[in-house]
Design goal:
Length: about 210
Amino acid sequence: MSDSKLSALAQLPAGAFRRQDESDDGRFYAPERLVTHIDEGAIAALTAHYRSVLSPGADVLDLMSSWVSHLPDDLRLGDVVGQGMNRAELEANPRLTQRLMHDLNRDPGLPLGDAAFDAALCCVSVQYLVQPAEVFSDVRRMLRPGGRVHISISNRCFPTKAVRIWLELDLQNRARLVALYLEAAGFRDIGGDVLADGLHGDPLIVVSGTA
């Protein structure tokens, strides 16, 4: 990442990536949470989006994964590597071909090869990253040329573990913040799509960029 790309992030308020609860994340995520964090309508919209952007046989990195990845059941993929913080949740996810326990807030780099994936996903969890530009810079390293990252966001979170700047923004400005993360990480062709407007359920926006 160049200094110029990081300059916009540097202009965020002091303490933007602090959290109410700065205790060890491993303890917070130790209990199993076999629940979904968005409602059925938003899940259906996300699954439809994945169907439209993922090619059969694609190798996929599922960042901050859990017991479900919301991938289309009938979409045959290549390797699906899930990184997360709870082993039981990862083990319960039938779509994963590899499970990686790794705390991105301790180490934003993953022990995975260069140009290993066609796409990367992050479902309603980006708000917990304290070093988002560094994380997504490493994601870009792991994507093949032309590979896309898809970051979905909604209005739910664990507020004590979300970074301060996230809690201070509305949904549209959260999407702009995520786009800023991707810009700082060196992604191009960055854009956002409203998948669910929130009028009759949970809102959902996906922000994407090309490696």
